[in-house]
Design a protein that fits this description.
Length: about 575
C-alpha cells in the first residue's frame, strides 16, 4: 500500500488508516434504518424491534429515572466515561476495543430481554459485568413498556373512531428514539407550544453541534465561516423541541430568555468573552410549515439578528454586524434591508419546487435550480425598525446580497426515519440553498449536515452523508429486500432513492460516480434483480434506468460505453414492456 505521497506508509500511518476505515464500517453497520415501510394498522417486526430498543436504551432518560445502558456497562467495566470512549474510538485502538466490548454486552442484554424478559435480562447483566439489578431494572421496565406498545397497533380502530366523529386521544409528535412517548401510534398528533422552544435540553445539545460545525469548517478552511445559511423545518423543531432554532442562536451568540410565564419571548447576547469566538452571520431559510407553526419564533429569530447587528463590537468578532454595516455605509441599502435574514415563501405558499423541476427533468442549467429556490423563498419575515410586522415582504435583492457572503450551508437531521435520500425535501431545501449560494457568492459553499441520532455529535459533509446513506440504504440488501417485500410500492421507493440521490448531483454535485455504478450493477445489470423489479413495477424500473442515463447525460457519472449501451437497451425493452402493458 502506498500513500498519496508516493512512499510506503509507516506502520503507524497504516494502523491509523485501518482504524479510520473500521470506524466507517461500524458507522454504516450501526446506522439505524427502516427495513420496510410502515403498513397502516400493523405492528413493527421483531427484528427491527431489537435495533430500536438498543438505540432507545443508549440514551439517558432522566424523566423516567433511567440511565443509558452503555454508560452503566462502561462505568461498571471501569472504562471511564462512555462519551470519551465513543469520541476516541476512531483514533485510538484501545478505545475501539472498549467500545466493542460495551456494545457486545449491551446487545447481549437486549437479546436476553427480548427472549426472556426484564428479570432475566437484569440477572444476565449482573452475571456478565456485575451491574446491580437496582440500576438495570428501570431500563428494562421502560423497554418492556415500549416493546408492548410496539407490538400493539390500534391505528385502524382509531381511524374508524375518527370517522365516527369520536374523541381521539392526543399524542406528541416526535421521533421514537428521542421521545418514546410518541407510542402508541394511532393518536391525534399534536405540535408544541411555540413559546416553549428552544427547550433547555435542546439549547444545551445545540451548543455542541454548533461548535462542532464551526470546528469542522475551521479545520478544512483555516478560519471561521463568515456566514452560514441554515434550513429550518417545522416538524424537526417540534421533534427536537427547537434544536435547529437553538443552533441558529448559538451561531449568532445569543441565548433565549424566558418571561415570568416561562415563555421564550426575548433573546440576550452571550458576551464575547464567554462565547470565545466571533458571532457568525446566519441566513435562515424557513419552511412554510415552520413559518405557520412557529410565528413567535420567526419574530424571535429576526429579533436575535437585529440585536447582534447592533452590538457595539469589533468587526472581526461580529461578522453579522460587519456585513450589515458594510452595506449600510456604502449607501446601497437601509438598515432594515441589510439586516433581513429570515426568509420563507410568500404567505400561504409552501416548498421550493426545486424537487419538482429536478424530478421532471425540466431544467437546462443548474443555475435554474438555485434561481427557482430564491424566487420561491425570498420573502422576508420579522419586524422593521419601527416595530411594524414584516410578513412575507418580497426581498429578492436583500436575500441575494445576504447569500453573497455565505461560506457554508447546513441542515440538522433529527430522525432515523427520514434521511437525505428518503425524501426529495432535503435536496430541494439544502441543495436548493447551496445552489443559490453558489450563484450569489460565485463559489460553491461547504455543505454540512449533522444528525441528532447518535450519542456523539457528528458533523458530516454532504458528500460523506450521501455515501453513508447510499451504503446504509440504497445499496444495502437489508434495506432493498425490506422494500421489495412491499411489491409495487417497494420498487417505487428504490427508484425514489436513486432519484433523490440524483437530486444531490443536480443541486450540489455531491454524488460520487461509484454510487451510480453500484446502483446500475445492483438493480439493472443483475438479471434476476431486474426481472423482479420489472415484474413488480415496470414503471419505476423504467424511471430508475432513465435516471441513471440522465446522470450520465448531465455529466454527473462517467460510465463506460458498454454499460451505457446495456442501459439503453434495457430502457428500450422496458418501454416495449410498458407499451404492451398500456
Ligand atoms: C417542515 O416540517 O417544515 C417540512 C416538512 C416537509 C418538507 C419540508 C418541510
Ligand atoms: Mg457541475
Amino acid at each position: 500500500m502506498s500513500s498519496k505521497l508516493n512512499r510506503p506508509l509507516t506502520e503507524d500511518e497504516r494502523d491509523r488508516r485501518v482504524l479510520a476505515l473500521y470506524d466507517q464500517l461500524v458507522e454504516v453497520e450501526q446506522r439505524l434504518i427502516q427495513t420496510g415501510l410502515h403498513v397502516f394498522g400493523q405492528p413493527s417486526e421483531i427484528s427491527e424491534r431489537a435495533d430500536v430498543l438498543r438505540t432507545i436504551a443508549s440514551f439517558d432518560r432522566p424523566e423516567a429515572g433511567v440511565r443509558a445502558l452503555p454508560d452503566l456497562v462502561c462505568e461498571r467495566l471501569g472504562l471511564g466515561s462512555y462519551e470519551t470512549v465513543i469520541n476516541k474510538a476512531a483514533t485510538d485502538s484501545r478505545r475501539l476495543s472498549d467500545r466493542e466490548q460495551i456494545e457486545s454486552v449491551v446487545s447481549g442484554a437486549i437479546n436476553e430481554f427480548l427472549e426472556s424478559g426484564s428479570e432475566e435480562a437484569a440477572s444476565w447483566l449482573d452475571d456478565a459485568v456485575g451491574i446491580n439489578r437496582r440500576d438495570s431494572l428501570p431500563v428494562f421496565a421502560m423497554l418492556e413498556k415500549i416493546s408492548k406498545q410496539l407490538e400493539t397497533n390500534s391505528e385502524g380502530e382509531a381511524l374508524l373512531r375518527a370517522l365516527r366523529g369520536e374523541f381521539i386521544e392526543p399524542g406528541p409528535g416526535a421521533d421514537l428514539v428521542q421521545n418514546p412517548s410518541v407510542l402508541p401510534t394511532g393518536r391525534n398528533t399534536h405540535a408544541i407550544n411555540p413559546y416553549s422552544i428552544p427547550s433547555a435540553h435542546a439549547f444545551a445539545r445545540a451548543h455542541a453541534v454548533a461548535e462542532s460545525l464551526l470546528q469542522r469548517y475551521q479545520t478544512e478552511n483555516g478560519r471561521f465561516p463568515k456566514a452560514i445559511a441554515l434550513v429550518l423545518w417545522g416538524l424537526d423543531n417540534i421533534k427536537t423541541q427547537g434544536e435547529g432554532v437553538a443552533q441558529a442562536f448559538w451561531l449568532l451568540g445569543v441565548r433565549p430568555v424566558r418571561d415570568s410565564l416561562n415563555r421564550v419571548t426575548e433573546v440576550e447576547a452571550i458576551p464575547l468573552a464567554e462565547l470565545n469566538r466571533p458571532r457568525i452571520d446566519v441566513v435562515m431559510t424557513i419552511s412554510g410549515i415552520f413559518r405557520d407553526l412557529f410565528s413567535p419564533t420567526v419574530l424571535l429569530l429576526d429579533k436575535a439578528v437585529r440585536l447582534v447587528a447592533q452590538l457595539d463590537e469589533p468587526a472581526e468578532m461580529n461578522y453579522l454586524r460587519r456585513h450589515v454595516m458594510e452595506q449600510v455605509n456604502s449607501g446601497i441599502c437601509s438598515f432594515d434591508e441589510s439586516v433581513a435574514r429570515v426568509f420563507s415563501n410568500a404567505p400561504g405558499n409552501y416548498g421550493t419546487n426545486v424537487n419538482f423541476m429536478v424530478m421532471d427533468s425540466q431544467w437546462d442549467r443548474e443555475e435554474r435550480l438555485g434561481d427557482l429556490f430564491v424566487t420561491r423563498k425570498c420573502f422576508a419575515y420579522g419586524r422593521d425598525s419601527q416595530g411594524r410586522a414584516v410578513e412575507g415582504r418580497e426581498a429578492r435583492v436583500e436575500m441575494e446580497r445576504a447569500l453573497e457572503r455565505v461560506d457554508a450551508t447546513y441542515q440538522n437531521i433529527d430522525t432515523f426515519e427520514i434521511g437525505i435520500t428518503d425524501v426529495d425535501h432535503y435536496f430541494e431545501y439544502l441543495g436548493g440553498i447551496s445552489k443559490a449560494v453558489e450563484i450569489s457568492a460565485q463559489t460553491r459553499p461547504s455543505i454540512y449536515l449533522s444528525d441528532s441520532l447518535s450519542r456523539n455529535t457528528k458533523i458530516r459533509s454532504l458528500e460523506e452523508t450521501v455515501r453513508l446513506e447510499s451504503r446504509a440504504k440504497t445499496l444495502n440488501p437489508k434495506w432493498y429486500e425490506g422494500m421489495l417485500k412491499h411489491g409495487f410500492r417497494g420498487v417505487a421507493e428504490i427508484e425514489n432513492h436513486v432519484s433523490n440521490t440524483f437530486g444531490w448531483s443536480a443541486t450540489a454535485d455531491a454524488v460520487d460516480g461509484w454510487i451510480y455504478t453500484e446502483v446500475a450493477r445492483t438493480f439493472v445489470l443483475d438479471d434476476a434483480m431486474l426481472d423482479r423489479l420489472r415484474t413488480l413495477n415496470p414503471h419505476s424500473a423504467h424511471s430508475l434506468v432513465g435516471r441513471l442515463l440522465e446522470a450520465h447525460g448531465r455529466g454527473y457519472w462517467d460510465a463506460d460505453a458498454d454499460l451505457l449501451d446495456k442501459l439503453r437497451e434495457i430502457s428500450g425493452s422496458l418501454e416495449d414492456q410498458l407499451e404492451g402493458v398500456a
